[in-house]
Amino acid sequence: MPRKVSHISEADHDVVTVAVAAAEAHTSGEIVTVVAAKSNEYDDVALVWASVVAFVAMSVIALFPEFFRGLYDRLTGGWGYELTANQWLGTVIAVGVLKWIAAWLILLWKPLRMALTPRTIKAQRVRARAIDLFKVGTEAKTLGRTGVLLYLSLKEHRADIVADEAIAAKVAPEVWGDAMDALIDRVRAGQPGAGMAAAVTQMGVVLAQHFPRGSENPNELPDRLIEI
Fold this sequence. Notes:
Blueprint: H1 10-24, E1 30-36, H2 43-63, H3 65-75, H4 85-106, H5 110-115, H6 119-137, E2 147-153, E3 158-163, H7 165-170, H8 177-188, H9 192-210, E4 226-227
Parallel strand pairs: 1-2, 1-4
Antiparallel strand pairs: 2-3
Helix pairs in contact: 1-9, 2-4, 8-9
């Protein structure tokens, strides 16, 4: 059955799958890898930007009324009637509405919306998505609560690692720093599969230190890379 989505190549899938199997050969921990095109649509960010554009446009007219009255006279050739205060207010509001609509339509172009989204918001949304996926597919899915999720969101160039209870109790979040650095460096170079494989290898080293392989080591979670 063909894969419904394809963010990375089949070769990248194979590289990540092999890396997960190799890492888990030395630990009782279970690594789950997930890749997504993006973690959020950022509709609220587009809404904020459109509102800012509209507010600025109306504020400029309010701050420089004589300039815009003169512009109105020039556009009408001096034949336009004098606008009342209420008519000017309605004009300012109409300009704001038009600016809002124009900005919203422009921000329907997703690359621009992504570019205008602050880095902190991207990081928060990627983290939230990683936690949601962890709760669904990894948390408490192993007997020893030793599952860990590696999540990569391509459009944001962000990744996150979320660990189950037993791992989180022994491994501080900053310990995963080397894995995250290895991943992001390669993603930026256009090698997402190699980045995830490198991160998995680093994660395997950490897991082997705290959760060495026992006499029984069932494969409780899938080794394959999951695309969403």
